[in-house]
Amino acid sequence: MTTYTAVLRDHTFRVLFGTRTLSILADTLRIVALSLLVYAATDSPALAALAYGIGFLPQLIGASVLGALSDRVRPRLLIVLGYLAEAAVAAVLATVHLPVWAALALVAAAALLTPVFMGAQNALIAETLTGDAYVLGRSLANVASSLAQLVGMAGAGLAVATLGGRNAMLLAALGHVVAAAWTRLALPDFPAPTAAGRRPTPRSGGLAAVSWQGNVALLRDRTVRRLLLVQWLPPAFITGAEALMVPYAAERGFPIGAAGWLLAAIPVGMVAGNLIVGRLLAPARRERLVPTLIALMGLPCLAFAAPAAWGLSWPVLAAALIVVGTGFAFGLGVQAAFRDALPADGRGQAFGLLSTGLMTAQGLLPALAGLLAEALPASLVIGLLGAATLLAAAIATVGRIGSGAPSYAGSLAGKSVVPGA
Fold first, then answer.
1. Per-residue pLDDT tens digits for 220-261
2. Model-level pTM?
3. Which of 29, 74, 197, 375 has the most CB atoms around it within 10 Å of its CB?
4. 167 and 224, same structural domain?
5. Residue 262, in any domain of the structure
6. Domain range for residue 264?
7. Co-location of 38 and 133 in the same domain
């Protein structure tokens, strides 16, 4: 039976796992420090919030015009350049007194590269780990990501308080430099996927055109499209609900600090859910439980729409959010099917598209939820987002996640078939 220990024995995965965890810590520190610096300079909550999420939406452009690079350049080079770009941005923000608009534009420009090196990372993990080891590897990465964000948020506040915002930014830059050096020295220099005996799907035009054609081909395929939507929509709805925890706590008259506990509950549940589902359940059962786990994300959100007269306390609601977090483990039942449905010569771009869609949806839904909460009570909006998540669970039930042959069956013998081409 595959175990987390066995997965960590793989050298390539261990390097990717360690460097990505370090990068998340550094990036969390940079995001918090920038948000605080922008707020101190402008006294504008809107600009501070924009600084916090400015790296999300540009990834959509990056995936559209640069996504094909993930399958055409050596992965180690792409990953190293990605970390160095993050380090350079943090270093410039720390040492150069830029206008707020210029600082935000710099972060947005660097985010264009994120789908490229993230796609290369995830494709390399999919190539390195086979069978159930791949799913456990993703589970381990999810746990580490959640813990890194929790530690990063707590550590960022401490670092900014003790070192100052700009010195904290330099510490973030150092973290990315270490991740880049670690990758360069420890990760094997694998060839680009299209140079490793796989013929690329015929496409014409420059990089932007080829990237666009690749994304269209992926989205045109029914199986790939369904698996992408299943992975994009539920987390986006829950992120929108999560963004309303502060106004919800104020609406309910909860004590100061309750919102922080509510926000911390979901990551706690995510860690628990990934450990339980990843370690204790067989692959076939994970796939069968995907709709149930998605429903587990949405159902507790309905409690937030309950009338105040019901007297639900914030600890009870925090417990409900832990349950919401455990539902995020549904992704472990989808990932193997998604990997197997992809063309062998386009996995890097496909994984970049997956992460870009996640970031874009999780960037848009909080904004949309906030706008809706201007007209409706925050409690009702959270309940509506929970109902939308339940609808996504119903859609996931319509087709079994692991059913059917891979849609890109043409990946046999290194030959790719593009649907509709």
1. 888 888 889 999 999 999 988 887 887 888 888 888 778 778
2. 0.72
3. 29
4. no
5. yes
6. 219-401
7. yes
